[in-house]
Amino acid sequence: MTFFADLSNENTSGVAYKNITLKKAILAYFSKNGNSTIAELCGELALSAPKINSILNEMIAEGLVRDYGKLQSKGGRKPNIYGLVMESAYFLGVDVKNDHVNIGLTDLQKNLIHVKSYIPYHLHNSKESLDELCKIINHFIKEGPVKREKILGAGLNLSGRINYKTGYSYSFFHFNEEPLSRVIGKNIGLPIFLENDSRAMAFGEFSAGVVHEEENVLFLNIDYGIGVGIMINSQVYYGKSGFAGEFGHIPFFDNEIICNCGKKGCLETEVSGWALVRKFKEKLTEGSTSILSSTPADKIKLGDIINAAINDDVLAIELVAEVGEKLGRGIAVLINMFNPEMVILGGSLAKTGEYISLPVKSALNKYSLTLVNNDTQLKMSKLGEEAGVIGACLLVRNRLLGLA
Description:
Elements: H1 2-7, H2 14-33, E1 36-37, H3 38-45, H4 49-61, E2 65-70, E3 80-84, E4 90-96, E5 100-106, E6 112-120, H5 127-143, E7 151-158, E8 162-163, E9 168-169, H6 180-188, E10 192-196, H7 197-208, E11 217-222, E12 226-232, E13 235-236, H8 273-285, H9 302-310, H10 314-338, E14 342-346, H11 354-367, H12 370-373, E15 377-380, H13 387-401
Parallel strand pairs: 4-7, 7-10, 11-14, 14-15
Antiparallel strand pairs: 1-3, 2-3, 4-5, 5-6, 8-9, 11-12, 12-13
Helix pairs in contact: 7-13, 8-10, 9-10, 10-11
């Protein structure tokens, strides 16, 4: 497939570069709008029918595009309709969590064709943890249904501060002079695009989840930490250095609890999976009872508390509600600032459903401006664990094909 080889060649110029750009535009159009006629492509790309026809013939020969025959129409000459060959290219999405990894593949039109969730993994800021992550990704590709050469690129989500433009991670695996994206890319044999996990999840939910016509959306990723993915005018908002969305590190509380960032009083010290686990263990030490009472304290994980709440454990429900109320206060600040059309609750704690959403709603009604709050819908994530995988795949697709 010459096109994909040329696409990754940074030295392409002249006529070849123009042809690649045009083919990218056609692939992007098909990806976004579905099958089309030559006339529709001419109108979109402002090019002549002979030129479009010539490029389409090249793309058909390369296995990228297929002629799907005559368009059904009443009277007149029926035009041919063209579209993507879905199996010609794929995108890999890797969503790294604290204690597992989710990996998936999408085709050119954002269909998730293969996914594997909850692959055991422990995220540590060490070379051994990085090597293990690369091993997991390579194993997924090797055992998957798609040949490596058909995967155009991989999106990899990590929590913390990510500069997606430079490919550097400043929270995990920041012990190489060269960008982390390049380090992993050499190991995997694919172009790697780093992304903050909350932003990728926001984009996944925005593109293929609960969002429909809304253009201004906030996605709350409530996991061990807490982050927010911001969509403004249907675009991911990054900020100057790519670090926008560090919601969990707003100095919200007057406490002496040291946050993972090294500062005191961050929202994350009271509103996060880490905080919930800490409070749960404290309550057990004080004598509270739970279905987890017989579990050694050092063995209790966030997932255990979430499952306990889902199974009607009173202590777990009470503490999730406490987190939800404080989270609602924080979201009220975001609503007053951004006036979004929708706020989505996602991440692992969203699995508790109404146990967290109801106290959030109550706090929003209490702390946000009524006039502003009335314009904002509160929704639960539709994609769940797949939000980050789909978001990572689609961000790679859009960057490689030049989609907005």
